[in-house]
Amino acid sequence: MAGIDFINREYIIDSQKDTKISFDSIGTGTSTLNGLMTRIKQGTNGKKLVILVDEIGDMDNSNLQNLINIAESQIKSDRLLLMLMTRPDNNKSEACCESIKFS
Known about the structure:
Layout: E1 3-5, E2 10-14, E3 19-22, H1 30-41, E4 49-53, H2 61-76, E5 80-85
Parallel strand pairs: 4-5
Antiparallel strand pairs: 1-2, 2-3
């Protein structure tokens, strides 16, 4: 990292190549998690939830684990039927799937 531009709110990665990353594009996913938690807690009139979460790649491991814990508690309380989470995987050229089962 070459520096920080506080006026334009950017990290300067390479000043020779003019490579910058805005402050807003770096995060731990806390705001995403808070938004999801709010939606999950809303009433459903007895209907089960199916939640599709696109791009969890901006969440750090702690927030991702919190989301998984929330999903587990909602499944155990019989409110959540399915949660599908996606994130990019730059190391693979094909789609892959991992499942988490709760007892």
